[in-house]
TrEMBL record:
Keywords linked to the UniProt accession: Glycosidase, Hydrolase, Signal
Residue stretches of biased makeup (Basic and acidic residues): 47-58
Name of the featured protein: Glycoside hydrolase family 25 protein
Family indicated by similarity: Belongs to the glycosyl hydrolase 25 family.
Top-level taxonomic group: Bacteria
Region spans: Disordered: 29-58
A Gene Ontology molecular function term of the record: hydrolase activity
Bias-annotated ranges (Low complexity): 29-43
Amino acid sequence: MPTTSSVRARLACAAATLGAALASLPATTTPAHAAPPTAYTVTGVDTSHHNHGREETTPIDWRRVATNHSFAFLKATQGTRYTDPWLQRDYTAAAGTTLLRAPYHFFDPRTTGDGAAQARHFVAAARAAGYQGGGKGELPPVLDIEKVHRNHKEVCPPELRVQQVRIFLDEVERSFAVKPIVYTRASFVQECMGGRGEVFAGHPLWLARYRSGANEPQPVPGAGRSWTFWQHTDEAQTPGIPGRSDLNVFRGSTADLRALAGRGQQAQPSAPSDTTRS
């Protein structure tokens, strides 16, 4: 087991490297909400068991996906017990392509104090699927925090507490020695978190905003940075993925995206193949 001092040193190194990578991204001084998704050329997908056909039994052709996209986020877990049944197969298959990738956890609190339990569940499942947090082609792990379904309605999680979100993020960062990406919406932070987006300060943001024409995602209050990834539709037709799928763009170049990958446990991670598509 690594010593406490070695873990702290590794975290400090990873944080500094990630900060430098984020700083190298294009400046965010462009007028807010100015560019359409087509202005960004580095694209990617995110998937779960829902993307495996009507019966959820059809494999995704990850090699076909990789011919058109540069990155993929794969659902790993939800709450404290659920693990996506396709996680292992999808992660293994995606890792065999040029796609830069990471697992994500859907934050689904069932008590007001289960942030650490959710983090431990996510870390265990991600590691079992082969994710290291700093391996070749691995992007930082992802926290997906949005409205949940209760009694057939989409609502703010009644048990959500900002401190538990912080505990989750800190636990995952300690486990993988890399600062997680956060997927959310500005409207969710306002409505469900009382505008307390400062808990996401320092984290790369993956923001959702659909069918918005030329409108980019709105800033998350308190987060102190613009978006790094933008999920702009859930109705894409992606070769290799059955049915409709989400589609995302990255705010930067393929080289910038590679700079975010492999920033965890490996001191000198190998770069992904130069055949990664823009």
